[in-house]
Design goal:
Elements (H helix, E strand, L loop, with lengths): L18 E6 L5 E7 L3 E6 L8 E4 H9 L2
């Protein structure tokens, strides 16, 4: 997968719309978008429009990651 973010010593405060990452496979083919907001994480596979993806409350994602 290819996800590119290069920000050394940068602080970002998320607004109402959060931040969206475009995700591509190793060949550069678009796979989807990952949006991280203040309260939810949303995965939009392919070229799906905003708010049409799978949503997960951020606290549930943190619980999942912390409790193998």
């Amino acid at each position: 997968m290819q996800v590119g973010v290069a920000m050394d010593e940068v602080t970002i405060t998320l607004g109402n719309k959060g931040v969206t990452f475009s995700i591509a496979d190793n060949d550069g083919k678009h796979v989807g978008h990952l949006r991280i907001g203040k309260a939810t994480v949303e995965w939009r596979k392919g070229r799906t429009r905003p708010n049409n993806g799978k949503k997960l409350p951020l606290d549930k994602l943190v619980d999942f990651l912390e409790n193998d």
